[in-house]
Amino acid sequence: MATMQALLRVAPKTIRMGELPIPKPGPGEAVLKVTLTTVCGSDVHVLGWPLPGDGPIAMGHEAVGVITALGEGIEGFAEGDRATVSCLSPCGRCVGCQTGGPGSACTHPRGGFQFGNLIHGCQAEYLLVPFAQFNMARVPAEVTDEQALFAGDIMSTGLGVCERAGVGPGDSVAVFAQGPLGLCATAGARLLGAGLIVAVDAIPERLAMARRLGATVSLSPADGDVPRRVRELTEGRGVDVAIEAVGTQPTFEMAAKSCRVGGAVGSLGVYGGVKALSLPVTVNFYHRRIVTTMCPSGSERLRRMLEIVRHGRMDLTPLYTHRMRLGQMEEAYRLFMEDKKTVLKIAVTP
C-alpha cells in the first residue's frame, strides 16, 4: 500500500511526522496532492483538546493542491485541476447549509474527528476532501497558491465577521488583536469601505502590518485605557463595530466597552481555553448587537474569495513571514506558538 508523509497528533499536545496510506476517494470525495499548507491558531487548539477517535490524527485544515482522484458523483472538476478547500467541510444538503450558510452552520453528523466540521489532514502530502462538490473550488490561473491558501479560512473568516457585524461605507471599526485573523478582519473592514479603522495589539510588528493592510490608527494596551482612547477618536461615541479577534476575556471586554450605542460587537476568536465569557453590565452592555462568526465556507464562498484576490481587491501575501518544508512541520508549530513577534503565517510546501 502506497504511503505518504503527514503530521500526526499522536497524543494531546504531541505531534510528529509519520506515514499514512495515501487516501482513495469514496463517493462524493476528492483527493488533492497538497502543494501548500500552513499552521493556524486553531491547529494549536486542536493539539490540546480531548478529541474522539482511535489512533493518530492527521493535522491541518488549510491547503491548496492539485486534484489527483475524484470519487463518484463529482461534477465540474477534473484530475489535474488546481484547487483549494474550505477549512469547514459543508455537506451542502442539511438544513444548516441551506438556511444558515454552508460550512459554519452545517449540521451533518460526520462522526469521528471533528470540531464542528473542521476538515483535517492538510499538513500531509495528500488530502482527502469530504463533500468535495460543496467544499472545493478551482483556483484561477491568475491566482498563486500563496494567494489562494487564505481563501479557505482566515480571509473568509476575517471578512465574514465584518459582514455579519454590518460594516459599511464610512463606518468606524476597531479590531482587537492583530494576529492573522485580526489582520484579515482589518483588511476586510477596508474592503467593505470603513473609514476609521483602529488596530489594537501589544506587538509593534503586528500593528505595523495592520497599518499596511488598512488600519488608520494603531493602539497598544501598554499605552493606556484602550476603550477610552477609542471613544476619544470617535467624539465620545465609540466605534460602529468592535471586533474581538483572539478569544480572550480581556479583549472581549475591551471590544464591548469600545462599541457605541446601537453598534455591533463581532467575535471571531476561538475561545479554546475559556469555559465561559462574562459581559460587564455597564452602560456599554445595553442596546448593542453581539454576533459570533465561524468561517463562511463552501465552493461558492471560495469562488468569491478567489475573485476578490484575482481582481486585486485584497492582497494578504504580506502575512507570510516564514517558508518551510513539510518535513519541518514540528519546528513550524514551535515557531508559530513561541514567536509571536515575527511569525504570522508560515508557507509550508512538500
What CATH architecture label of the largest domain applies?
Alpha-Beta Complex
CATH top level of the largest domain is Alpha Beta
The overall pLDDT average reads 92
- What's the CATH H-level homologous superfamily of the largest domain? Medium-chain alcohol dehydrogenases, catalytic domain
| Topology, number of strands | 16
Helix content: 25-40%
Largest sheet: 6 strands, parallel
Structural class: alpha/beta
* CATH fold-level assignment of the largest domain: Quinone Oxidoreductase, Chain A, domain 1
Overall geometry comes to globular
| Strand portion | 15-25%
Q: Compute the gyration radius: what is it?
A: 20 Å
Helices and strands in order:
Layout: E1 3-11, E2 14-21, E3 30-37, H1 41-48, E4 57-58, E5 63-70, E6 82-85, H2 95-99, E7 126-129, H3 132-135, E8 136-138, H4 145-148, H5 154-164, E9 173-176, H6 180-191, E10 197-200, H7 204-213, E11 217-219, H8 226-233, E12 239-244, H9 249-258, E13 259-267, E14 289-292, H10 299-310, E15 320-325, H11 329-338, E16 345-349
Parallel strand pairs: 9-10, 9-12, 10-11, 12-13, 13-14, 15-16
Antiparallel strand pairs: 1-2, 1-4, 3-5, 3-7, 5-6, 6-8
Helix pairs in contact: 5-6, 6-7, 8-9
